[in-house]
Input
Amino acid sequence: MSVLKAESLTKKVTSPEGMLTIVNDVSLDISAGESVAIVGASGAGKSTLLALLAGLDTPTSGRVSLAGADLTALDEDGRARLRAERVGFVFQSFHLVPSLTALENVMLPLELAGRRDARAAAAETLGRVGLEHRTGHYPRQLSGGEQQRVALARAFVTRPAVLFADEPTGNLDTHTGERIISLLFELNAQLNTTLVLVTHDLAVAGRCGRVLHMDSGWLK
Amino acid sequence: MKAVVLALRTLRREWKSGELGVLVLAITVAVAALTGVGFLVNRIGIAVDNQAGEVLAADLRLESGQPMDDKAIVEAQARGLDIARTTGLFSVVFNGDINQLTSLRAVSEKYPLRGRVLLSDEPFGEPKPAQGNPARGEVWPDSRLAAALGVSVGTQVNIGARTFRVSRILISRPDQGATFLELAPSLIMNEADLESTALVRPGSRVRLAQLFAGPRTGIAEFKKWLEANKKPSEEIEDVEDSAPQIKSAIDRSARFLSIASLVAVLLCAIAVAMAARRYVHRHLDSVALLKTLGATRGFTLVVSLVQLTIVGLLAAVFGSLLGFGAQAWLVKALEGLLRGDLPAPGFAPLGIGFLTAIAVLSGFALPPLLQLSRTPALRVLRRDLGPPPPLVILAFGPAVIAIAFLIFWVLHDRRTAIAFVIGVAAFVALVAAVGWLLVWLTTRFRGGVGVSWRYGIANLGRRRAESVVQLTAFALGIMMLLLLAVVRNDLLNDWKRSLPEDTPNFFFINIPPDEHEQFTAFLEERGALHARARPMVRARMTHINGTPIDDIKFSTPRGREFANRDQNITWAEVLGDDNVITAGKWFTREDFGKPLVSVSTEYMEEMNLKLGDELKFDIAGETRAAKISSVRDVKWDSFQPNFFLMFAPGLLEGSQGTWMTAAHLRTKNPKTISDLVRRFPSVSVFNVDDLLSQVRSVIDKAVAAVQSVFLFTLLAGLVVLIAAVQASREERRYESAMLRTLGANRSTVLKGLLSEFAALGVLSGLLASAGASIAGVYIATRVLQIPYTPDPRVWFYGVVGGGLLVCLAGWLATRSVVNQPPVLTLRGA
Output
C-alpha cells in the first residue's frame, strides 16, 4: 500500500543566472514499511526533494500525497498538522530546542499532536535509545551522538507513518555514525515505519530496501 | 494551551540567553521613568495650584462690593469645605496727630485658608509665621504703615471709633496682591472688632470676600455651583489668576521633566527593538523546527507572544514599583514645594506603567515577532532562509503609532508634541545619515592601519546597516550621558544664575516723576543694587480694532479680567534681556513717537489679539490708539519691572504718571526701608522676598527633580548600549572562533574586536557631542529660556569617553568570545 507518492514533481527557483530547476519531473511511489535511500552528489537536489516530499516546501508543479492526503492542496498550517500526526524527522545538525531538556524535546511532537501521555511515552522512547539516564540534560550538555539519539527518539515517539532523515550521520564521527544508523534501522524495523533517507554514503544507502539516485534534479 | 505550556517551559532557559533580560530592563526603565515623572508632574500641577492658592489665601474666593448673604457659606459647609471671611475697606489710621490712609482688612477665624501671614516685631524685620489672627482689640499694621505712623509694638492707634493696640508688625499676608494693585499700606484686625469701629455704614465702600478651600474635586464642583447661584454683583476668583512668577518657573520645570522622561522612554524603545530583533534572530531555527514538527504559525506566534507578555507584565510591575518608589523619593526631595492635599498614590501610576509597557512592546517588539512566525519550516534544511521581508508599514507603523501615542499622552500639548516628534525623527534620521557616511568614510580609509584595526573596521563596513543602527543607538546613549554629565551642570548652573543672590527683593511704585532720580540716588547711597526704572501710567483698554471692549466676549476669565481692569503701561527705548521678541520687531528710532505698542505673549493669547491689531486706551481721560507692532515673551520670574503693554517712546511722556523700580536690599537692615518711607512718603514699597524665595525654592527643587529624572535617561542610555552590544554577540563569537581556528592568536582577535568597538565608539562620540551641543542650545533657549554657553569639553568627553565606554561595554559583552575555546563555539554553531 502506497504511503508516499510523488507525481511529476518539479521545483524551480530564480537565481542571478536565471531560472534554475532543482527537482525535475520526479515521480515515485513508496509503500508502507519500505526503506528508501536517496543518494547523489552535493547539489543534486536530494534535500530539496526530501523537503517537497515532507511538505516543508511547495513544488512549482506536480503533486505529493502523504498518508492519503494531498500535500499540494493543503496550506502551510494544514501541512504542519499532517506532519504532526504522520511524519518524523532526523536532521544532520540534530535541531534540538536548546531551551528544552532531552525529555522535553522528545515530548514536544507528542504535545503538538495533543497527546496526554507525552511524558511517559517520551521517557519510554528515550529508554529505547539508551538515554534514560540523560532525560534532564539540555542539548548543550550532551555529546553529538547523544543529541542525535534524542533526535531519533523525538522522530519515532509519535510512531510516524513516514520518517524523513537528512544526512543523519553527517555531523558525527564514523563510529558514532554507525551506531546511530544501526539504531535508526532497528527502531524502523521495530515500529514498522516507512523510512526516506537522504545520504551520500553508499554504505548507509545499501542498508535500505531501495536506492534512488539523484543527478542534477533528475531521479534515475 | 499547549503553546502557553511550551512558552512557560522554555522561558526559564530563554532568560539565561540574555535578550529577555535586556527586554525586561528596557521596559522597566521606560515604565519607571514615565510613572515616576508622570506622577510627579501631576503632583507639581497640584503644587502650582496650591502655590497660586496662597496668593488668594484660598482655593476660591467670592467677592462683592455689595452686602453678601450666607447662601454660599451654608452650601460650602454642607460640602465640608473650609471657610473664612474678609472685609476690606479704606480708612484713615491715627497715631496721635499723624495719620495715614490705610487698606483695612478685617479677617475671620481660619484666615488665611492657604499660605501664611508673616509677622515681625519691627517694621521690615525678620519675618515669622503668625499663629492665628489678631486678638480682639489688637491690630497688625504693615511695615509701611508702621513706618509712616511711627508706631511700634505696644503703640495705641485709633481707627474709627475705637482704639487698638499694635501687637505685631505685618510683614506679608498671602492675598496682598502680587500684581501691585493694592497700593495703600495695610492693616489686619479681627473681624469681631469691625462693628465697634463704626466704619461700616450703609453706602460705605466695603469689599467683602468669602474664602473657600478644600479638595480639588470638591472645589471644582463648588465653583460650578457658585457660577450657577451667585448674584451678578459677586465675582469668583480662583487659582488660575495671579502668581505668574511661580507658575512660569514650575511650568518650565514640568515641561523639562516630561521631555526628559520621554527621551528615556524612546531610548528604552530602541533597546526593546534591538533586543526583540536578537530574540527573533535566535529563534528562527526553533520556529522552523516547531513548524517541521507540526506546529502551526498561530502556535509559534502564541509561544512568542506569551513569553513577551510575561516579560512585559514583569517589567511593568518592576517599573511601576521603581517609578512609584522614585516618585515617593522625588516628592520627599521636593518637600516644601509640594504641600496641601496631594492625592493619595492610587492605581494611576500602575495604569501608566502597564500602558507604557504595552505601547513599547506592541510598537517595537510585536512587528519582529509577527515576522518570526512567518519563518518557513524549510529553514531546518536551508539555514539561509528567513521570514519574508515585512511590509514597511507593518515594520515601522506600530512603532510610529506607539511613539506618537506616548508623546501625545505625556506632553498633552499638541504643538509641543508635534515639535518633539519632528525633532526626534529629524535627529534620528540625521544621526543615521551622518553615521552611514562616517562608516563609509572609515572603511574607505582602512588601508593605512594594522591587521587588527583593518579587521575591526572592515567589520563595520561589512555590517553597514547593523553598524549604522548601533552607531545611532550608541550616539543617542552617549548623548544622554553627555547631557547628564556636562551639559546638565552648565544648564542648571545657568538656570540658578538666572536668579542671582542680588535679585531685586523690593519693588517701589508710585515714585513721583520729579523725584525718581533722587530716589535712585537714595538707593545707591545705601548700597542697594537697583534694577531699571520704568515710567508707569494707568490705562484702561476701550476698543480692539474699533469694537468696544464691552461688546467683545473673551473665552477665558483671565482675558475678561485683563479687559476690565486698569493696566499699568510703560514705554522704553531698550528692551531688557528678560524679554524676547517672538513676532514683529522692537521699536527702532524711526518708530519713536508713533502709536505702536509691544504686547506680552500671555496678554495676546488671553485676549485673542494678533500682530497689527489696533488697541484704544483711555489714559487719564484721553483716548489713545496704538497698533500692536511686536509680541514679547516675558520672563516674569526675572523679578525685574515688567509690563504686559509697552509703548513706543515719545508718545505718552506727557501723561500723568509715576515711576517704578526694584532693588535688592538686605532685609536685615530694616532701617533703610523705614528711612526711605519717611523720605519718600508717597512711594509704595513691596517686599517680594517671600515670593522670590518661593521661586528660588521651585527652581532648586526642580533642579533636584531634573537630576533624578536624568538618572532614568542615563539608565536608558546604558540599556541601549547593552542591547546594541548583545545584538551582535553571537555573530562576533562565531567570527572570532573562525579567526582563531585559522591561526589568529587571542590578542589579535581581541585587538580586532576592540578596534571595531573603538571605531564605533569614536564615531558615536562625535555624533553624540554634536547632538548634545544642539540639545543643550535647545533646552537652554527654548525650555529654560536662558542663554547657553557652549562647552568644548563636551567634544573631548564625547569622543574619548565614547570610544572608551563602547570599548569597555564591547569588551565586557564579548570577552567570553576570545576566552572560549574555538571548538566550543564552532560546535555550538
